[in-house]
């Protein structure tokens, strides 16, 4: 376990309050209204978000690597770590542990499906990366200890050894690693806390939108079938340096990948997906999320745009997207994660574009609150990292083009230049980068899509 990650370790030495005050003081990173643990403080620099911290630890202390050397295997580890945070943990905690009755039954199905993905991944392996413990194992580590406690507290058994033998074996292997075995918190106290939490918090925690659901129904040029045939053909002849990007007409996540490849001067082929009729190849390459973008490099498929950006960075070293310094790298990763997890895109799309009246007002407030954090971060800087465009800029890039279109479609002004001057300047800078300027999808078509989505959602038109 990484040093100083748990608030409990501070309380153990009895001066938790002092530490907490220090953390609150030091931690400039804002992920929510409160500062969340863990926060790692290294020589006075605060880093938050556990996965960002793990990357920082990896880059700062090189002994006992947590990530493999090979970029594809690295991407795999990052993919699973992200899957665990974004899908598995919420499905178990919010979907099962904090629910009851029919809602819980539904949650159980979803969490079992997620556990099944893990079971498939673990088959024949000791850890995610093979023989040695790594980043994804640390991300999943809680499960080795907490799943039983969750199950006890909720009074149901989800993952038995017979149905999930590889997962059970992993749990055993992981729990047996000496530093892991020595670091678990007191089982009795945890169980007690969880039972109390379940009791107090048993209320629906449903969000009004789901992360990144972009169901588009357009195929680019109406020649989808031809593309599909071509893809299948191409897939049969994987060339020496084959780089393909699965994208859709309006996907902002896919744009990140397109920009990164163009910035690095990597040639690639674009595969246009109709998200209302996904190709078998997309389902094959991204069986878990079934979303674009997917990058296929020499037959190896990588999904999740931020994981893909890291892969691109590792594979093609020219025009770096991340700075050299581990702390600055952590900062870039923090903001990329903030943009995705505070759900700037889903919050504007699902909370503003598709809503009206009071609900929309609530969505606007939430979006603007998140945007204010970005405004504060960009103050006095050209890009997130200073003078040059990088990972966090690519993560936010969609906003430079889509914000105005969203505003037009929703018929309201969200972020004016007076209130968000740094953001306005950043939008201009970003949109002026040649590879960015050349890659925007057709404005009219995107606007048409957004207007249609809004009408359909508000019941003013039958969805297509
Ligand atoms: N977290 C993903 C989000 C990708 C995503 O939401 N893609 C949307 C298009 S914008 C998609 O493929 N949606 C299809 C679906 O939800 O079925 C990433 O960063 O790549």
UniProtKB/TrEMBL annotation:
Gene Ontology biological-process annotations: glutathione metabolic process
PROSITE patterns: GLUTAREDOXIN_2, GST_CTER, GST_NTER
Chemical reaction(s) catalysed: RX + glutathione = an S-substituted glutathione + a halide anion + H(+)
Keyword field: Transferase
Domain (GST C-terminal) ranges: 70-208, 325-453
GO terms, molecular function: glutathione transferase activity
Pfam family, one: GST_C
SUPFAM superfamilies the UniProt entry points to: GST C-terminal domain-like, Thioredoxin-like
Entry keyword annotation includes Transferase: yes
Domain GST N-terminal: 1-65, 241-320
PANTHER family: GLUTATHIONE S-TRANSFERASE, GST, SUPERFAMILY, GST DOMAIN CONTAINING, GLUTATHIONE TRANSFERASE
Record-given protein name: glutathione transferase
Organism: Dovyalis caffra
Lineage of origin: Eukaryota, Viridiplantae, Streptophyta, Embryophyta, Tracheophyta
